[in-house]
Design a protein that fits this description.
The chain has 3 helices and 25 strands. It has a 7-stranded mixed beta sheet. Strands 9-8-3-2-12-13 form a 6-stranded mixed beta sheet, with no helix packed on it. It has a 4-stranded antiparallel beta sheet with strand order 6-5-10-11, with no helix packed on it. It is elongated. The termini are far apart.
C-alpha cells in the first residue's frame, strides 16, 4: 500500500526506537483502528512492544504484534478491527475482531517487558484513555470535546513528537489549544495512512554530553551514542592512589600485521583460582627491556584464546620470532600477578612466538605480585598508605618486624667493647664484658641496675 508522511524533522544520528499513537478512530459498527507512527530514523521492531487495553474498568488484555512486524523510519502501522470498512482494512497491517474498544477502553503502547502484568499507566510509552477516571459506557474528554474517545476520530497534532508516557490528562488537555489531539467527527478517516509530523522544533539526535568525545553541540535529543575516553590510571586496589574508574594502561596493546594464537584450557585457569572478569595478558620485552602487552583476554570460566601480536618491520610493537612469552593476570580487584608458564612444544604447537602459529599453555603458577609502578603508588613494606605500621603489637610506633627481642637473639657472637651511661661516662662492669648492663638513673643517681648475661 502507498502511504505518505509529511514531516520537516531533521535526523542526524541513529536513535533508539520511538513510536507514538498518531491516530485513533472509534467509528460506527466495527470501524475502529489505531495508527502508530515511528518518528525515529531507525526501523522499529514491534517484537519489543505490546498493545495493551484496559477493558470494562478492570480487565487487562494484551495484543502481541505479529512476529517480525516492524515500522520503517517515518512510517506507520495500523491496527484495525477485522470487520472494519474496506477503506480501513486496505490500510491495516494487523487486525483482530475486537479492536479497538468502545470508547471507554484505554489503550497503551508498552514495552514487551510488561507482558503478563496488570495494566499500569506508568509503564506506557503512549496511552489513550485513563483507567483512574474510567466510567462505564463513557469516553474520555479531550481538547474540550466531551467523550472524545467515543464516536470520534482523533488525530495527533503535528507538533507532538513524543508519547505521553501514560499521562493522558496532560495529553488530552482541556481545550483545542492545550490538547495534543485534533478531535474529528465519527467516521472521518481522511487522515488515515499518513501523518504530518514536524515536532514543533528541529530535532537533532546525537550526543548531548559536553564531556563526551563525540559531543554534538547542535543536538537537542540524546540518542545514547556518547563515547568517552578510556581513563588510564591506577586500577590496583592495593595501591594508595587506586581509582576504581581507571583502567590499567599496562594491558593496552595494538593489533599488528601478524599474531599467534595461544590456547588456555579451563583447568589451567582454574588451577590458579581465576575468577570471571580476571584479565590475562601476554607480554613481550621491548627494546628498553620493559614488559609490554601484546594481547589480552577476559577470563570467563571457559577455554580461552589470546592473540599475541607480532612486531611489524622496523617497529618495536610486538613479539619477534622465537621470543618467549611472559604472562600477567589482573584480578578483578586490580591486583596483578606475574605467572610462570609451561608451554606445549609438540607440533603443531610452539612454545615461543611464531607468526601465525599456535601455542598452548599446559600449566600456570603464580610467581609474585606484579606492581604497576607507572600508574600506582604503593606503601613501603610493613606500612599502610598513611605511614602506619601494619603490625605493631605494643603500639610503640615501631613495626613488629623491626622490634629486637633480646631474649630470642643469641649474644654469644657479640663482644661488648665499652659501656657508657646516658651522659657519655664510662661504666665499668665487674662481670665479663660479654654482658649487657642497663642502669636507670634518677637525678644522677643509679636507682636500678640490670645485667643481661
Amino acid at each position: 500500500m502507498l502511504r505518505f508522511v509529511l514531516f520537516s524533522l531533521i535526523f542526524s544520528f541513529t536513535v533508539q526506537g520511538q513510536i507514538l499513537f498518531s491516530e485513533y478512530a472509534e467509528g460506527s459498527s466495527y470501524n475502529k483502528y489505531i495508527e502508530i507512527y515511528n518518528y525515529s530514523n531507525e526501523t522499529i521492531n514491534l517484537d519489543d512492544y505490546i498493545l495493551k487495553s484496559f477493558t470494562n474498568g478492570s480487565s487487562t488484555f494484551e495484543n502481541l504484534f505479529p512476529v517480525g512486524a516492524f515500522i520503517e523510519p517515518g512510517g506507520l502501522y495500523v491496527v484495525a478491527s477485522s470487520q472494519a470498512d474496506e477503506s480501513i482494512l486496505s490500510q491495516a497491517d494487523y487486525t483482530f475482531q475486537y479492536c479497538c474498544g468502545n470508547g471507554d477502553d484505554a489503550y497503551a503502547l508498552m514495552p514487551i517487558s510488561s507482558l503478563e502484568q496488570d495494566f499500569n499507566s506508568d509503564s506506557a510509552i503512549d496511552i489513550i484513555g485513563y483507567p483512574n477516571t474510567w466510567q462505564e459506557g463513557l469516553g474520555w474528554d479531550a481538547a474540550g470535546v466531551e467523550q472524545a474517545t467515543k464516536n470520534h476520530t482523533m488525530v495527533r497534532k503535528s507538533n507532538i513528537y513524543y508519547g505521553n508516557y501514560g499521562n493522558w490528562p496532560m495529553s488530552a488537555g482541556t481545550s483545542p489549544d492545550d490538547s495534543e489531539w485534533l478531535v474529528l467527527e465519527q467516521d472521518d478517516w481522511s487522515n488515515l495512512g499518513f501523518h504530518e509530523y514536524d515536532g514543533g522544533v528541529e530535532i537533532v539526535f546525537g550526543c548531548t554530553d559536553s564531556f563526551a568525545l563525540n559531543y554534538n553541540p547542535l543536538a537537542n535529543a540524546d540518542d545514547g551514542s556518547c563515547e568517552y575516553a578510556e581513563l588510564f590510571g591506577c586500577a590496583d586496589s592495593t595501591a594508595c592512589n587506586y581509582d576504581p574508574s581507571a583502567s590499567s594502561s599496562i594491558f593496552s596493546f595494538s593489533n599488528t600485521d601478524s599474531n599467534m594464537t595461544i590456547a588456555i584450557e579451563v583447568s589451567v585457569g582454574l588451577s590458579i583460582n581465576l575468577e570471571i572478569g580476571d584479565v590475562f595478558g601476554v607480554f613481550y620485552t621491548n627494546d628498553l627491556n620493559e614488559l609490554t602487552c601484546a594481547g589480552s583476554a577476559v577470563w570467563n570460566n571457559e577455554a580461552l584464546a589470546i592473540a599475541a601480536w607480532g612486531s611489524e618491520s622496523g617497529l618495536d610493537n610486538g613479539f619477534v620470532p622465537s621470543e618467549e612469552f611472559t604472562f600477567i593476570v589482573k584480578k578483578i580487584d586490580g591486583s596483578m600477578f606475574l605467572l610462570d608458564s609451561s608451554m606445549n612444544s609438540m607440533p603443531p604447537f610452539s612454545s615461543t612466538y611464531e607468526p601465525n602459529g599456535f601455542g598452548q599453555v599446559l600449566s600456570f603458577s603464580i610467581v609474585s605480585q606484579y606492581f604497576d609502578l607507572e600508574n600506582c603508588d604503593y606503601p613501603e613494606e610493613y606500612y599502610d598508605c598513611f605511614g602506619n605500621c601494619l603490625n605493631d603489637a605494643d603500639g610503640d610506633g615501631i613495626c613488629d618486624e623491626f622490634e629486637l627481642d633480646l631474649f630470642e637473639n643469641s649474644m654469644s657472637n657479640n663482644y661488648i667493647i665499652n659501656n657508657i651511661d646516658l651522659l657519655g661516662r664510662d661504666v665499668s662492669v665487674d662481670q665479663n664484658k660479654n654482658n649487657i648492663l642497663i642502669q636507670l638513673f634518677n637525678n644522677g643517681n643509679v636507682i636500678k641496675k640490670v645485667i643481661i648475661k
